[in-house]
Amino acid sequence: SSIGMNVAALALEGGNCLIDPNRDVNETASIVLGAKRGGGKSGVMILGGGSPKNFMLQTEPQIQEVLGIDERGHDYFLQVTDARPDTGGLSGATPAEAVSWGKIDPDRLPDAVVCYLDSTVALPLLTSYALARTPKRPLKRLFDHRERNMQLLLDEFARASEAPAEPIDTDAKLPMHR
Questions:
Q1: Which of 36, 41, 103, 140 is catalytic?
Q2: Is 103 a catalytic residue?
Q3: Where are the domains of the chain?
Q4: DSSP for the chain, written as a single string
Q5: Could you report the per-residue pLDDT of 139-176, keeping only the tens digit for each?
């Protein structure tokens, strides 16, 4: 991305901006796990597709497949895109495809929504509707819960790692971290 290239150029000049993708992946997974273990639900709202879509949706495969933690996928899915599914790209991939990777809870698939519209039209409409129809509520302050969520992820990963690994059907999927 252009942001990544500019950060890399700054590093050549001695800049100290440090981006840690490993930490980013684990922290986003910990936010999802923390929400679900705290009695809540998780949902994704995706504007467009591509890498940002993948980054948000990979939280569940990270939890389930890579870390071996028992989980079912996101509870809610809303995507606004102008990409078509027939081209085969991620931007147009359907919620049903996301179920196949464990990204969305299969029981929640009927509630998934894809809106084929330009994001610059859809976002103001959705935002205005949400602000008008939803009462104010306390902010989540997710940053304040980073350490607790990461500890939860680490603890559940440690427990999952101690459990005997299920036999892997090599024809069905490739072995991951475990």
A1: 103
A2: yes
A3: 34-136
A4: -HHHHHHHHHHHTT------HHHHHHHHHHHHHHHHHTT---EEEEES-HHHHHHHHTHHHIIIIIS------BSEEEEEE---GGG--GGG--HHHHHHTTSB-GGGGGG-EEEES-HHHHHHHHHHHHHHHS-------GGGGHHHHHHHHHHHHHHHHHSPPPPP-TTT------
A5: 999 999 999 999 999 999 999 998 665 554 544 444 45
